[in-house]
Specification:
Blueprint: H1 2-14, H2 16-39, H3 45-62, H4 65-73, H5 81-92, H6 107-140, H7 142-149, H8 153-190, H9 196-227, H10 230-250, H11 261-269, E1 273-281, E2 287-292, H12 294-318
Antiparallel strand pairs: 1-2
Helix pairs in contact: 1-8, 2-6, 2-8, 4-5, 6-8, 6-9, 6-10, 8-9, 9-10, 9-12, 11-12
């Protein structure tokens, strides 16, 4: 079995289309990391001075001096005049931060934004790569020669599945890990505060993203082994992900949004997911907000993967090649 897996791994990395997809994913991850670093670059003295000047102009235009003076006058007894003046100025006068051209780098904010986006992008490319890996064997007829070389079909199917899953996980770990290491080094160089809690959240997000990439690659491979066509697999996945979302929001069933593929994928990748369920109404007619845990999302995705793998194994064993 180990020898078969090594052969399949070699075949996986020898496919030019797959190498191109991996290169695109790595390039896009690098571009997003660069953009995140550039858009949060440190402010210059001129930019800070300009923002302060704009805040002062808006304060004079708004006529907040009377409100600030009244606030200082109404301050509790014993409050230091300088502290009271600063508090009142912060309360009524326009803030300098409002006019700053950009915000500093925030790893936690990146995790909720670009981090989730680049993980989904890389996983999507790995799904296409896994489907292409299986589809090309059927299109070229190479699967027949492989079965002749190793007549035990279960071993052939298992070796391919393991190879695709391992390769998808390695690619995701390298690309996404490189993305976060680059941003971490930028944050450390700029002295951006990033406590152990933030680093822990990023680490666990990376683990979940790699696990999802492995499962998504194996699932796409399994579906392609059933349909024997990459185009059919991608069409089914597109229909299920987009059409299923529309159907879920149209069904008049209480709590059906819990079974949305999109909610469960985001629930697995994000640190904490709160989604709006349009089918569940709280008291007073408002729309209810629901929490989806990592365990719930993981079990849902694992169930889908298990069904795909079981169906793929069963059809590959019995159908003619």
């Amino acid at each position: 079995m180990t020898g078969l897996v090594r052969v399949e791994l070699a075949r996986y990395r020898s496919r030019r289309v797959i190498v191109l997809l991996i290169a695109i994913g790595a390039l896009l991850a690098g571009l997003v990391a660069f953009q995140s670093a550039w858009d949060t670059r440190p402010l210059t003295d001129a930019e800070v001075a300009t923002a302060q000047a704009q805040a002062d102009i808006e304060a004079d235009r708004a006529g907040d001096d009377a409100d600030i003076a009244q606030c200082i006058k109404d301050s509790p007894l014993g409050t230091e005049p300088g502290f009271a003046a600063q508090q009142c100025r912060d309360m009524f006068a326009p803030s300098q931060t409002t006019y700053l051209p950009r915000s500093p780098l925030n790893l936690n904010g990146t995790l909720q934004g670009n981090g989730i986006g680049i993980a989904l992008l890389v996983i999507g490319l790995l799904i296409i790569a896994a489907s292409t890996f299986a589809g090309s064997d059927w299109a070229s007829g190479a699967i027949r020669n492989q079965v002749l070389f190793e007549p035990r079909r279960t071993r052939v199917w298992a070796a391919k599945t393991i190879a695709v899953s391992v390769a998808s996980g390695l690619v995701a770990a390298v690309v996404l890990g490189g993305f976060w290491v680059a941003l971490y080094l930028v944050a450390a160089d700029r002295g951006v505060p990033h406590g152990s809690a933030v680093v822990g959240d990023i680490g666990w997000h990376l683990v979940r993203a790699v696990a999802l990439a492995m499962g998504a690659g194996a699932g796409a491979f399994a579906l392609t082994m059933i349909f024997r066509s990459s185009v059919a697999t991608l069409a089914v996945l597109f229909t299920y992900s987009i059409g299923g979302e529309i159907l879920i929001y149209l069904l008049p069933v209480d709590g059906v949004a819990r079974w949305s593929l999109g909610h469960n994928v985001f629930g697995w990748l994000e640190k904490h997911l709160e989604y709006v369920d349009p089918t569940a109404l709280c008291l007073g007619g408002c729309t209810a907000s629901e929490h989806l845990s990592h365990l719930e999302s993981g079990l849902y995705l694992l169930a889908l993967l298990s069904v795909a793998l079981l169906g793929s194994w069963a059809t590959f064993r019995r159908r003619d090649v």
